[in-house]
Amino acid sequence: xxxxxxxxxxxxxxxxxxxxxxxxxxxPRVLAAMERIDRGLFVRGQFSxxxxxxxxxxxxxxxxxxxxxxxxxxxQALNPGQRDTVLEIGTGSGYQAxxxxxxxxxxxxxxxxxxxxTEAEALFQKLGLHNITAQIADGSRxxxxxxxxxxxxxxxxxxxxxxxxxxxxxxxxxxxxxxxxSDAVQTLIRVTRSESGFSYxxxxxxxxxxxxxxxxxx
Length: 218
Ligand code: SAH
What we know:
Layout: H1 3-6, H2 9-22, H3 28-36, E1 57-59, E2 63-65, H4 68-78, E3 85-89, H5 95-101, E4 106-111, H6 114-126, E5 132-136, E6 149-154, H7 163-167, E7 169-179, E8 186-194, E9 197-206
Parallel strand pairs: 3-4, 3-6, 4-5, 6-7
Antiparallel strand pairs: 1-2, 7-8, 8-9
């Protein structure tokens, strides 16, 4: 058993928040939202005792739950407002969507794997997060029926920001997406849409599973 597992929940929580701050998550609203969501609920099985470490971990369907500091930095870059409607591509464990739910009016989250959507929905119910709608869909096409969105967060890596997602972003909206040719490392970018078009900022290097077109088998 590691030292961390011997911590009380309060000590674990303090260490978790300290790690986030030391890696650049400084927005008090984001820290408060992350403090309210227990990452331990979103990691199951053999890796659950590592839930509070700042590391990505395996989840079913060969996917990963992102590193908490990356969740924090992406949320901070997205800067969702209380009245915003946010689209997340890549529900995965549901952890990122649960964090977003505390910061905006409504979250739509989609994943290509049925099992991940079903398990995440059960957690949203359990936590009383009624402003999240999870759907099985190919997120590279966005969610045309609910568009446009104030914010779009893509938690899988694409070669370029997918065109349908750019089209579904409101004027004044922000999209955060990891892009790059390589499977090993990508660049997190922030796309801001204004009347005159799109502007792009490079934020940092990240490592995400790829955005895959079409629905999964499970
Ligand atoms: N945000 C998640 C982590 C996502 S991992 C969390 O907080 O746990 C990336 C997810 O993107 C995987 O679950 C994968 O199935 C999903 N994904 C990949 N390509 C996709 C696509 N085209 N449409 C929807 N989901 C996709």
